[in-house]
Specification:
Length: about 230
Amino acid sequence: MPTLDVQAVLFDLDGVLVDSTECVERTWRTWAAAHGLDGDLVVRHAHGRRTAETIALVAPQLAASAEVAALAQSEAAEARGVYPVAGAAALLTQLPRDRWAIVTSGVRAVAEFRIGIGGLPIPRVLVTADDVSRGKPDPEGYLRAAALLGVDPSQCVVVEDAPAGLAAARAAGMHGIGVLGTVDARELGDAGFVVRSVATLVVAELVAAAGAAAGPAGLRISTTAD
């Protein structure tokens, strides 16, 4: 059974803690059609990336700021195709509030809306597209979350469903756990191990070593999956 001992867990949101694939793909395909672009190509680039970076990749000729604003306004009120992930809320409640964070490529308004749909506890640390200058696969967002939690990056594990997010984790010097559903398992090669769902993850708080210099107790992350 795969096991990781860490100090903090950093979660992606879409495709990990909420199932928004249907909504995300419909939104991007509609946008692609409106601009005469290949919907499959756009969706392939969009997973795990900020809207601004996706647009820069697939349609650099467009005014990205206006497109980002329009897409954010659309997604911040769109509940169709966004579903809770079984076991996600229960997993988060097992974790001390100062030992986990959400790092998403979505803007804050969309993230908060989907956190509500998912019935998830509000994270003490939420890093969104609004909080970074460079999105995944750049490690900026995950490094920011680790700093806000006060945890060394090497003592963090990232839970991600997209190659861009796992590449960001690797670039940050963090462990990675891949979640199936958005892409094929072969595309999650940067993960230490891969699970079907966060519902299969188990968190145990380790007993702290004696002495103040030992630091806080760690977290042991394992999976019930075969």
